[in-house]
Amino acid sequence: MGTLKPGILAVAVAIALVGSIIYSGYFLGASASNLGNSGKVTSNATDATDLASDGPERTTGLNAAEALDNATRRLVVQQGTLSSPGPDAGPFQIIDILPAREDGRVYQGTITFTATKPVIVAPLLRYGVAEELLKSEFGDLFVFPGGPQGSLIAPALITPNYGGDVNSDIPMPRTYSASVPFTANGLSIGNLEGEQFLITYSLHATIFRSQLTDDVQSAVGQPEEVNGTKVSIVNGSALLDDTAYDPNPVTIEAGQNVTWVNDDLDPHTVTSGAFGTEEAGEQFNSGYMGPHRTFTQMFEEEGEFEYYCEIHPNMVGTVVVEADAQ
Ligand SMILES: [Cu+2]
Fold first, then answer.
1. If you measure from the C-alpha of residue 89 to the centroid of ligand 1, how many angstroms do you get, rounded to a whole number?
2. Is the pTM value of this prediction over 0.85?
3. CA-based nearest residue to 280, from 241, 248, 310
4. For residues 234 and 238, what is the distance between their CA atoms, to the nearest angstrom?
5. How many angstroms does the Cα of residue 44 sit away from the middle of ligand 1?
6. How far apart are CA 308 and CA 226, in angstroms?
7. Rounded to whole angstroms, how far apart are CA atoms 68 and 82?
8. What is the C-alpha separation between 150 and 200, in angstroms, rounded?
9. Cα(269) to centroid of ligand 1, in Å?
10. pLDDT in tens, 121-136
11. 271 CA to middle of ligand 1, Å?
């Protein structure tokens, strides 16, 4: 009886990179997007008008060759086998299948894949709320920079139902297969546990112009309170280490608060201890902090307290607590 040697499938995988961009900088905030101060929330009447005309796609800023290319590339068909970025990628293993489109158009299609580990499918959605301060009771979306036209991206994080092992008399490697429809500005596949994986996929998608409908008036609130010594999580901090938190170290007296304010567009955390240690997060942990969010922690005891960011463990800081002066 024919047994399949385990591992043969895995070894035989040719890494045929079909225009693959392994986007290791994904959650590292490598994007240089700058939202400025123009993040007003309005529905975009200009685009609506443009759509209504049903005319040719806008080609502003494109030369003739690019315009032609753009016009002939409205249907995307891709397939290939990709590997996730590898051990240096940080806490997540992410492959950028379709980079988020700068022009704001959306892909509408389906990806079918089989992977060596359970992966999430992340359609990349433009998040139009840039500089607004939102009431926390509405909740936070997971966002990071790099969306179309200077916006943020709020990725949908879809976990397909992979079911159990395939029923077969022949021993086969466990695989994780699914077919997922999507409408989004881009598409990534990832393992958020940091497990490296291989994926073979095919996708087809058509590119459409979208109509913008941002309206979050009811969720816009006041700035959150800083009721302790302020430490800023500085702009671009994902790429910094001991200058990511400012000031660092921060010195307070026993019994006082420190309030961290995320002045960056990337999400961050303020997590006690050192990355990868048993005690990490035991003393305090802000959890996910979106842009503009604050986290306040009181320190009762003297000492030096290390902390770091769980999303970007390169970001580290120290709180120095001195004896109460009185
Ligand atoms: Cu961070």
1. 14
2. no
3. 310
4. 9
5. 32
6. 20
7. 29
8. 31
9. 6
10. 999 999 988 666 788 8
11. 10
CA of 315 to the centre of ligand 1 (A): 6
Ligand 1 centroid–CA 262 distance in Å is 9
Amino acid at 284: F
Domain architecture of the chain: domains with CATH: 8-208 (no CATH), 223-322 (2.60.40.420)
Q: Do 273 and 283 contact (CB within 8 A), yes or no?
A: yes
Pairing of strands 120-127, 186-191: antiparallel
Question: What's the rounded mean pLDDT across residues 78-87?
Answer: 96
Say how many residues make up the chain.
Answer: 326
106 C-alpha to center of ligand 1: Å? 28
User: Over the stretch 289-316, which tens digit does the pLDDT of each residue have?
Assistant: 988 889 999 999 999 999 999 999 999 9
Q: How far is the CA of 311 from the centre of ligand 1 (A)?
A: 5
Spell out the alpha helix ranges (H) of the chain.
8-11, 45-53, 64-72
Cα-to-centroid distance, 111 and ligand 1 (Å): 30
- CA of 316 from ligand 1 middle (Å) equals 9
Alpha carbons 225 and 296: distance in angstroms, whole number = 9
CA 102 / ligand 1 centre spacing (Å) = 24
Among the listed ranges 65-74, 174-183, 188-197, 281-290, which one has the minimum average pLDDT value?
65-74
CA 194 to chain centre: 14
Distance 29 CA to ligand 1 centre (A): 9
Q: How far is the CA of 258 from the centre of ligand 1 (A)?
A: 18
Tell how far the Cα of 272 is from the centroid of ligand 1, in angstroms: 13
Backbone angles phi, psi at 14, to 5 degrees: -85, 130
Query: Residue 276 in contact with residue 303, Cβ under 8 Å?
Result: no
CA–CA gap between residue 266 and residue 235 (Å, rounded): 8
Higher pLDDT, 47 or 231: 231
Ligand 1 centroid–CA 61 distance in Å is 34
Could you list the beta-strand ranges (E) of 41-163.
75-83, 93-98, 106-115, 120-127, 144-145, 152-155
